Automatic annotation (TrEMBL):
Obligatory cofactor(s): Mg(2+)
UniProt keyword Lipoprotein present: no
Keywords: Lyase, Magnesium, Metal-binding
Any one GO molecular-function label of the UniProt entry: metal ion binding
Organism for this UniProt entry: Streptomyces aurantiacus
The protein's Enzyme Commission number: 4.2.3.-
InterPro entries per record: Isoprenoid_synthase_dom_sf, Terpene_cyclase-like_2
Family affiliation: Belongs to the terpene synthase family.
Protein name as it appears in the record: Terpene synthase
Pfam families in UniProt: Terpene_syn_C_2 (PF19086)
Coiled coil segments of this chain: none
Amino acid sequence: MGTRLSEVELPPVFCPLESAVHPHVRQIEKRAVEWIGASGMCASEREKAWVVATHSADFYARFTPAAEDDDRLLAATLWVYWGFGFDDVRCDSGPLSGRPAQFNALAGQVQRACETGLAEPADRYARALQDVMRRFRSFAPPTQVTRFVHAHRAWLSGVAWQIGNQAAGRMPALDEFLALRLLSAGGHPTFALLELATGAEVPDREMNRPAVLALTEMAIMVASLDNDRYSLHKELIRGHTDQNIYTVLMAGRSLSLQQAVDEANKLRDRILRRFLELHDVVRPTAGADLSVYLQGLRHGIRGNNEWGQRVPRYLSLGHWPDEWEDLSPAWAEEPSDLRPGPVEGAPSIAWWWDADLG
């Protein structure tokens, strides 16, 4: 982009949701770091250091602060560590990040490892994933495991889409980017972990309600746009700014980076406002397990913000991750955009505002 983050003013974050973290987060983190070292998925101490520096235990302990079973929460946390590691080494900026054919071949192997543990895959990340999946199957019913497997496939399909764009030097328009980002950010499997970590078993008739599907997608989108914000500093420094909400807006609307930052913030706040509005319609009639899931969506949006504004994954600029002071995030009292109705130029998400959702 040719711009330093010091030249851009990032607005405070509007997020009027409750903050919480699981009380056993440090014990979960210790067990997870031991697993990372024993899993064989990291090829070097540096790679391991970056995986550990994702602070995934802190991340997911904020999604599920009331989880009653530490082993369930640990298994969910292991997948988050695994997911960040796989994203960094195999997806985001690794050797396959611009080679769609080779990535698709690997993605097929990884997805099959997610689906079955009968054959040992060649890839070290695929082998580690099998161990995580064995843990899930040891305590979770088939419905919840299957939901996670399908969500995992959706994520890999989005990454493949993104890598295809990168290989072709193609910048998507806003509507396509938002549809892509719903998949490529990994939000579907991350929120599918809510049932696995908490033991909630949401009935199909509730989970598949259009309003619940919309709430899930909105939570994913808000978190994804927030992650674009938090990774901006690192991407500017490293020159890795191919596809994010800012480059899309700059290319599609001929905006400066500052203008794109402001527009993206407005878009994000409009989606969060609609999430809050629809949540308050759905929650009063939700069953007990769906209520746990909906609360997890709320905790996830807030927790992702609190984690993202302080995690070395986004803030470290050197060859090895640096720890940063635990600073309080800057919060906005009001949303930056109060306009009603769907986001302009984004028909693929306009259905979130349908009047008959509920």
